[in-house]
């Protein structure tokens, strides 16, 4: 029996509708993982996770409970670290302490007009947990990423990432031609960034609505070609 409900191939991108914990053991070569996992019980109805019944419309900046992260997200990320080594993920402030100890912590940095919330109030940065070896070691590449305006965010996902910022992260965490996995694909921003930058992409998403949005966005990016290499 296949570990996924649906598989879509778009150029060098392969998208799976299914549970990442079931799909990942069947995958071939992956060079790096770049992902934005759910941050807590307050946000997730399905996206890449099991046993969750809270609507995505309940999204908030931080959460009182990390049960969903501990039960579902952390095992998936640990599998990524064990299988693939190099992982870059955005985690939110409160959830970050539940993840395995990273090799390094980078950040998205915000302007004063685009602050995010922490339990101590507004913050001007968001952590990026980095695991494994730096693919650009010795090049003195900075590990902070100025977050761009959200004007290029057009999806209905409750926590979409601006594509300009996500291209910076994908480019920092990988090399041209490598295969990138996003086990919590959501609306497909990592996949769009990979198409733009000349990386092959594997995406996994459990929510069919977001999976369909990702298919549309990555198809459109593929039609436009590799614009940002």
Structure description:
The protein is an alpha/beta fold and 229 residues long. The protein has one domain (6-224): Vaccinia Virus protein VP39 (Rossmann fold). It has helices at 20-23, 67-84, 163-173, 189-197, 208-224; strands spanning 6-10, 13-17, 32-35, 87-90, 104-109, 116-118, 121-123, 125-131, 144-146, 179-182, 200-205. A 9-stranded mixed sheet has the order 1-2-11-10-3-4-8-5-9, with helices on both faces. A two-stranded antiparallel sheet has the order 6-7. Helix 2 (67-84) links the parallel strand 3 and strand 4 (87-90). Mean pLDDT is 81; it is low at 41-64.
Which features does this protein show?
229 residues; alpha/beta; Rossmann fold; nine-stranded mixed beta sheet; two-stranded antiparallel sheet; 11 strands; 22% strand
Strand content: 15-25%
Strand order of the largest sheet: 1-2-11-10-3-4-8-5-9
| CATH classification, class level | Alpha Beta
Question: Low-confidence stretches at least 5 residues in length (pLDDT < 50)?
Answer: 41-64
CATH topology: Rossmann fold
Number of strands: 11
- N-to-C SSE series? EEHEHEEEEEEHEHEH
| Intertermini distance | 39 Å
**Tally of alpha and pi helices:** 5
In total, how many domains does the architecture comprise?
A: 1
């Amino acid at each position: 029996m296949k570990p996924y409900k649906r598989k879509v191939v778009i150029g060098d991108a392969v998208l799976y509708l299914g549970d990442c914990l079931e799909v990942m053991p069947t995958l071939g070569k992956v060079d790096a993982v770049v992902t934005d996992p759910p941050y807590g019980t307050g946000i997730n109805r399905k996206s890449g996770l099991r046993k969750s019944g809270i609507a995505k419309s309940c999204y908030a900046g931080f959460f009182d409970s990390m049960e969903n992260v501990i039960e579902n997200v952390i095992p998936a990320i640990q599998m990524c670290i064990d299988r693939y080594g190099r992982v870059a993920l955005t985690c939110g402030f409160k959830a970050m302490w539940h993840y395995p100890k990273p090799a390094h912590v980078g950040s998205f940095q915000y302007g004063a007009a685009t602050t995010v919330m922490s339990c101590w109030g507004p913050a001007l940065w968001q952590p990026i947990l980095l695991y494994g070896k730096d693919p650009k070691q010795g090049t003195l590449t900075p590990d902070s990423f100025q977050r761009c305006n959200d004007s290029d965010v057009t999806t209905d996902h409750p926590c979409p990432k601006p594509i300009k910022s996500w291209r910076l992260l994908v480019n920092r965490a990988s090399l041209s031609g490598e295969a990138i996995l996003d086990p919590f694909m959501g609306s497909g921003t990592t996949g769009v960034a990979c198409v733009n930058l000349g990386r092959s992409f594997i995406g996994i998403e459990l929510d069919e609505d977001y999976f369909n949005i990702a298919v549309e966005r990555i198809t459109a990016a593929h039609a436009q070609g590799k614009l940002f290499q």
